[in-house]
Amino acid sequence: MSKGPGLFSDIGKKARDLLTKDYNYDQKFSVSSTSEAGLGLTSTTVKKGGLYTGEVGLLYKYRNTNVDLKVDAASNVCTTLTFNEVLPSTKAIASFRAPDFNSGKAEMQYFHEHASFTTAVALSKSPTIDASATIGAQGIAFGVEAGFNASSKNLTKYTAGISMAKPDSSSAIILADKGDVLKISYLHYLGEKQRSALVGEITRRFSTNENTFTAGGSHAIDPQTTFKAKLNNHGKLGALLQHELKPKSLLTLSGEFDTKALEKYPKFGLSLAIKP
């Protein structure tokens, strides 16, 4: 399923992940286990402010089918069914949340050597249809995405993007929010082992004439420890330190400071994910 230029959501993903992934300003603890029969169980507790929330997840893999079931503290049940190779080079995904059955969604993904297509339909009283297409070759990909509301017969979104990937770098240009937001990102790896990287992203919102520039990077201090940091032109400085206690068990410490308002309390987060 990984062949070809990838999905439209993959455009700019590497730079986006380096700037956002694993940054967490709550207290989070999770324990996961997997059996030889393909059954996975995950228990997660999050403290946000003075409130605690919890979630239990169950993942079962059988041949080309994945069943993902999640139950939270409010008794909401979210179920996702994934069927790989339901047709050649095709993946089908169905999801719904109980008791809100209007949240149901059906999605089909098709992967080709030089293109990919996705179609998703929201199964509600006011259905929306989202579709995307990506074409590319030799590290260059171009994609478009659009959403349509069947009841109002209006476009809910349209986005376009282009990306270029090389062994040591990745760049992307995305025009989003119905043409109101322009995002340009560039990521560059340092060294052949790609243990360190630098990234920059410029966001321009035309309706408000607002510009945001974010620079960041990551560095592997040793095989088990990674340090990441980012800073934008509004003075928000974020940093995290992630350490692998043992294979697949991660301890992450993160924080955010407003360098233009030092009187404000900084944000701190702690995440511990244990996989026996």
TrEMBL record:
Keywords (alphabetical) are: Ion transport, Membrane, Porin, Transmembrane, Transmembrane beta strand, Transport
| Keyword Protein transport (UniProt) | no
Main location as per UniProt: membrane
An annotated GO cellular component of this protein is: mitochondrial outer membrane
Q: Name one GO molecular function term.
A: voltage-gated monoatomic anion channel activity
Indicate where this protein resides in the cell.
Membrane
Source superkingdom: Eukaryota
UniProt cross-references to InterPro entries, sorted A to Z: Porin_dom_sf, Porin_Euk, Porin_Euk/Tom40
What family does this chain come from, according to its entry?
Answer: Belongs to the eukaryotic mitochondrial porin (TC 1.B.8.1) family.
Report the protein name in the record: Mitochondrial outer membrane protein porin 5
Q: Which organism is it from?
A: Acorus calamus (Sweet flag)
Q: Which gene encodes it?
A: VDAC5
